[in-house]
Amino acid sequence: MAGAVNMLPALRGELSLHPGPAEPDGAPTWTIRDPVRNRFFRLSWPAFEILSRWGAGDPAAVAAQVRDETTLDPDEDDVADIARFLVANQLTQPQGTQDTRRLIARAEAERQSWFHWLLHHYLFFRIPLVRPDRWLGASLPLVRWLGSGWFRAATVAALGLGVILAGRQWDLFAVSLVDTLSLSGLVSYGIALSVVKVIHELAHAYTAKTHGGRVPSMGVAFLVMWPVLYTDVNDTWLMPERRKRLQVGSAGIVAELTVAAWATLAWTFLPEGPWKQGAFVLATLTWVSSLVINLSPFMRFDGYFIAMDALEMPNLHPRAFAMATWWLREMLFGLGVQPPEPLSAARRHALVAFAVAVWVYRLVLFLGIAVLVYHFFIKAVGVVLFVVEIGWFVILPIWNEMRRWGQMKAAILAGRRVRWTLGAVGGALLVALIPWQSTVEAPAVLKPARTKDLYLPFPARLDAVAVVQGQRVEAGAELMRFSSPDLELRKAATAARIAGRRAVLDAATLDPLLRGQAGVAQEDLRKAEAELAALVAESARLVLVAPENGFVYDLLPGIAPGDWLSPRQALGIVVADAPPVAVAYVAESDLSRIAPDAEARFVPVIPEQGRRSGRVSRVDPAPTKVLADESLASIHHGPIPSRVVGRQVVPDGAVTRVTVTLDGSPPAHETMGTLTVAAERSSLVGRLARSVLIVLIREWGV
């Protein structure tokens, strides 16, 4: 293998070598700085000793010198590996036409189309504008007090006091947060983000200058197409002290938390107005951006670089991905290949777990952005983003890895574990492709077919209760009798008027002098009789009767004859003696699989209540816009995702109400559960395809 590199290539003259941090085992390292590309390469002790004798020109001579002059024992292959590393990273001088052609080919391979560039950078890209190193150094004395001990102590005190005072005004804080969730509020957050990012990036820059670092450039970065400041502090890699690198890496988060502390305190003291609103926006934005976004090691934000410095592990993401890929191949095929780098078992497992977490986090993030665009902006763009991200960031990496497996086919087939892997994959494919799912499950509520609430028409006194809890009654049967002394008094007075008018009419037949009043008396009598009939009808309403055959439940507890009751009090309910129903809310993708009169089974949440069988009696023609059965809503800890719009509960997704008539007697109360409906057989792949088609048809009208 050493013969592949007979003469060592010359290193580029502008490269510089700097002492690096110690390895976890105490071994020294060095850092190569490439000033043209502003890139840095960490060298181990053996690599440094080999490069120190690079001038020998021949791999065998270099290896011999290292063996003679140090305790290391490299061979020609080790020197050749270093040479290939230098060539691959463009750290050597091209020696002839072959090297020139290689560099041209590499440049062509790295050239991206606008589509590929946009695909990789639509979340974040940078445009350098200025070289700030000189004026940063000149202005450093003006801001040095921000890193002093007394200011840090004052900020901690402000943080504690602000959190305490804000906690006492938490209701106002929550209301203010809801008020900012509007278009104008989002614009305010965007402006605050740009301001905070200026403070954030300047904190990185000034901290780097404090430790003697160089800041070669500053410019504008576009974070999800929103402009913010960015600072290049890559020269921090030249600092061998981990403490200094951690201070530079965490300076932005510390600056944002400082802004958050003082803005929170200001919000608690400021009077209502634009300044208080501005302090609130600054506080909430900086808390979220610092603790949720910047501290995350899953994206290339501050948390990632802090993690690399804390662990002394440069290129954490690529190394973790390489380790996770190696682990996956070993788990599936048992190739017996050495890991990408020699690490302890615990460190390898941690890297694999970290890589999987990064993959899951990025998938959720990218899909979340697509869903956000879909719901709040252009739906067609959201669908395109969803398809592109699934294809590019999920399907394509899997495809590339499978192509790599094809190149390793001989080694894979030689192992015994591949049989178990192929069997598991085949089983998974069968589970996904075979239409074994013959039912549809949906959250449901078991309820009586019909119910009637019992209320008084107006305040009245209870005279008698003719039923007990759970009693079966016939239609028209008396349930409760009430009376109203005022109503009885009015009835008596009206009856007396009627008797008086009749007496006048009787006297008018005998006394000619009264005959002139007979017409008036007759009209007055008719009015009094109509009034009495109305009072009798009103009095009859105080006798509550069963509207239909059924059962009486939920009688108002503790009532007794003589009690006065309000018309706003529910006195009980009459449950119709009819087969109960289960109202389920079926997802749009499953609705087409349900046939009319299909068999169904309701399984209650409480097993002791027993299962019930029945058949589908109705499928609503359109999706539900308002969730009538609010007990199933997620805002009430139910299974259906929902939100409140105005005073109504609205489901987040497209669900349709399906009514099933069940066997058995009607329940006393509504019961939550799950409805299982016999449906057309379907596979997992088929259901996924149907869901995708539904979205495409809905958005494009295909």
UniProtKB/TrEMBL annotation:
Transmembrane segments: 149-167, 173-199, 211-229, 249-270, 279-299, 349-374, 380-399, 420-438
A GO cellular-component term linked to this record: membrane
GO MF entries: metalloendopeptidase activity
GO process annotations (BP): membrane protein intracellular domain proteolysis
InterPro entries: MBTPS2
Keywords, comma-separated and alphabetical: Membrane, Transmembrane, Transmembrane helix
Entry keyword annotation includes Transmembrane helix: yes
Keyword Protein biosynthesis among UniProt keywords: no
Identification of the protein by name: HlyD family efflux transporter periplasmic adaptor subunit
Naturally occurring in which organism (per UniProt): Magnetospirillum aberrantis SpK
The organism's taxonomic lineage, starting at the top: Bacteria, Pseudomonadati, Pseudomonadota, Alphaproteobacteria, Rhodospirillales
